Amino acid sequence: DKFIQVNNLEKTYENGYQAIKSVTFSVKKGDLVCLLGPSGCGKTTTLNMIAGLLNPTGGDIIVNGKSLLNVAPKDRNIGYVFQNYALYPHMTVLQNVMFPMTVGKNKKPKDEAERIAKKFMKLTHIEELADQKPGNLSGGQQQRVSIARALVQEPQILLMDEPLSNLDARLRLKIREEIRNLVKEVGITTLFVTHDQEEALSIGDKIILFHNGVIQQDDKGQDLYLE
Ligand code: ADP
Ligand code: ADP
C-alpha cells in the first residue's frame, strides 16, 4: 500500500548547499499528505525532485514499485500546482485548462480536450469563467484554474506547493476545504506543501514534518512542534 516511497533522498545544490539530507517517507494511494515546515527547510526541493525539475544527488523515488528517476519529467504523469498559479495570461480560462491536452504525446482531439477541460472546470467551480483571461480573475479563481489544468491529464500524483498562500484568510479556509473534497472525489494521491501547521492538521491524512532538510516527524499527531 506504499504508492510513493521516497528513500534516503538527498539534494546538494551546485553551490555546495545540502538542502535535503537523507529524507525517507511513504505515501498511500489516494492519501492527501502534507509536507509541513518553516520556509527554507526543503519542501519545494523535494516536490521538484518528484516532478523531475531537479535531479537528486542521492536516494530514490519509487512510485508504484518503479523508480521515477530514469523516467523523463514529461513522462512521469505528475500534476503540479504552483504557488503563483503560473497561468498563461494571453489565454482564456478554457484555453489554459485545455493546454496540457493540446501539446506533446498526450495531445487529444479538440472536442475531446474541451469536454475533459469542462468536466474539471465544473469540479473546480469555474465553468462560468471559461472565456475570461486570468488577469480578470481573483486569486481564488486563478487557483481553481491552475488546479483544473493540473488534473486534466489525470495524473497519478498531484503536487501542490503552498497553493493557498496568496489568498486572504477567509478564502484560504474555503479553498482548502474544496481542495480536500476534490482530491477525495478524484481519488488522486496528493502531496501538499505548507508552512501552516493548522492548515496541515486540517487538510492532511498524514503530515511529514521537515526541519532543515531532514524529517522530524511522520504521522498525524496533534503534538507537532514548529519553531
Ligand atoms: P522550502 O520549500 O521548504 O521553503 P526550499 O526547498 O525552497 O525550501 O529550499 C531549501 C533550501 O535550499 C533553502 O535554504 C534554499 O535557500 C536552498 N536552495 C533552494 N534552491 C537553491 C538553489 N538553486 N541553489 C542553492 N540553494 C538553494
Ligand atoms: P519557495 O517560495 O517555494 O520556498 P523560493 O522563493 O525560496 O521558493 O525560491 C524561488 C527560486 O529561487 C527557486 O527556483 C529556488 O531554487 C531558487 N533559490 C532559492 N534559494 C536559493 C539560493 N540560496 N540560491 C540559489 N537559488 C535559490
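^ adenosine-5'-diphosphate complex. DSSP finds six helices and ten strands in the chain. The two ends are 33 Å apart (CA to CA).
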